User: Fold this.
Amino acid sequence: MMNKNTLLALGIVSALSFGASGAALAADAHAPQPPRLKWSFSGPFGHYDKQQLQRGFKVYREVCQACHSLKLVAFRTLGQSGALGFSEGQIKTIAGEYQINDGPNDRGEMFQRPGRPSDTFPLVFANEQAARATHNGALPVDLSVIAKARTYEVGFPGFLIDIVRQYQENGVDYLQALLTGYENPPAGETLTPNQFWNKFFPGHKISMRPPLEDKRVEYTDGSPQTVDQYARDVTAFLMWTAEPHLEARKRMGFQVMIFLIVFAGLGYFTKKKVWANAH
Amino acid sequence: MSGPSNFQPKSALLQWTERRLPILGLMHSSFVAYPTPRNLNYWWTFGGILSFCLGVQIITGIVLAMHYTPTVAGAFESVEHIMRDVNYGWLLRNMHASGASMFFIAVYIHMFRGLYYGSYKEPREILWILGVIIFLLMMATAFMGYVLPWGQMSFWGATVITNLFSAIPGIGPKVVEFLWGGYSVDQPTLQRFFSLHYLLPFMIAGVVVLHVWALHEVGQNNPAGIDVKSDKDTLPFTPYATAKDSFAMVCFMILFAWFVFYIPNYLGHADNYIPANPLQTPTHIVPEWYFLPFYAILRAIPSKLGGVIAMFASIAVLAFLPWLDRAKTRSAKYRPLFKQFFWIFVITCIGLGWLGAKPAEGGYVIASRILTAWYFIHFLVVLPLLSYYEKPSQVPASIAESVLGKQPLATAKAKGSR
Assistant:
């Protein structure tokens, strides 16, 4: 019996190993693997650090927002459970600071009005062409799901261990590494005036200028005002924009697991009892 | 095998119904009284698990379809709408997306079990072929489903796979245009894929009914691979198989839940969170893990048409298996050589899967070619030859003997009726 169960487990593992790169989409063989960081939201009991999300949101608003939109994120969600912990009033204030295109009105004209909690973050540029025109042809991408849209390749057997460890923070590892990965190009590499050298960017030549510098954003909670800390905070915030229900998901996951394990235990003994007569 | 049911409902109403539509009797003879070989191991629980998977996909899929928009402009955002705004939308979507992978894990185990124990052999040929048809339908359904979120990998995966048909001589390009409903993967393609993705699961359900019907006609194979000879060889489906299947199913749900709640994006591609962009090709276009072995076979052949033929042949060859492997002994347990070749074949498939994820260059291509060749040699050369040259070991006289040992049957009977 024991033997059969071991075989079963092996079978599942080998079936999964078909997915050699199930999650691992090769970025660039030349780019180094970003270091794996400690994130508050990793693991089975992971949860967002509200203070960190608020700091990250501040970094987004004061730095990233100049070019990058968050068009899938509604203001109201900033106050959801498992989010930034803003009150209704705070959300109204934040939303009101943005101008939203609306209309047409009774005269058939489009108009601008202050944002409401039900609105999503407005686009920074009217369209892709406008965005490219102001960035020498480069397009600042929308950041709503960016934390899930980036990853790095994990070789064998790491990608199998990640299943057991529940490691799914490849995207944020990469983003944090990217934001802190600017350096001088190695000798022999030439950059155009609008290119920068980034250790972790696939191909290394990135059109985004180094966005962060120490003391650029003021923190009021005493957290270090460093590029590294800014990068961690804004990355955590972007994880939240990508997975706003992460906390609810993990919480329910734990309940489901407890239920299923108890159920499986009962099922095992029931089966044993039923089969006791047969063998 | 099922035989006429001796089911006699107690209530007068049910007796009245039963005389007019004996559906309860059918259920009773199929899932309660149905005799199952008493030596079935846990590999036999995957049939039930697969029904569960199909049920989960259909139920979550129907609800997702209520919130999804099959348009080029709206598909990506509607999926995010499900993830963000729909009540428990994240749960439904994660279940549906991971559920596809769970379905394939289960079906591959189910298929390898059939290969190992010779479940395709006489009299189960049609049962097996129906299984191959279900597998094909599953692949089509999964492929079209992956296109629906309209991310980069959706779009480019659809482009690559539909383009395969252009290799058909003469009419190829016309066929591709017909599939696309235009001159590239675009709105008509997405819309028809959505329609077909909704239709095919119900076709799968229909073929599953035939599959179960055929199964209940010929009876289950079993680890000893020998026929049921007497009542001592079998146990009634309920409570024996029901209890065992339920336990296995709950264990499977734990694995399922692990992916759904903790690593829902593990089995997908990060690139699919980038909205589809026809002007920008991703660095590597990689199909979902369950297609990787076939993708490796496709790319192993230097000519496009050859690759397409090899890929389809690699699935079609399964349908001919009952006639390629003519050995009388079913179970690998009693076929020492076949058993070794079986495991080599399993490693070949895993190796092809790994190669399917690697770029088609250098050593990877050579390895793909060797493994592709072996894949076909296994079916077309090894199995037919083994049928003639292999000396099987002694099979037990009966199922009861294989599981209870050679103890006097009287004892076994006494135990059984205790």
About this structure: Chain B touches chain A through 68 residues (CB under 8 Å). The domain at 35-220+237-285 of chain B is CATH 1.20.810.10 (Cytochrome Bc1 Complex; Chain C).
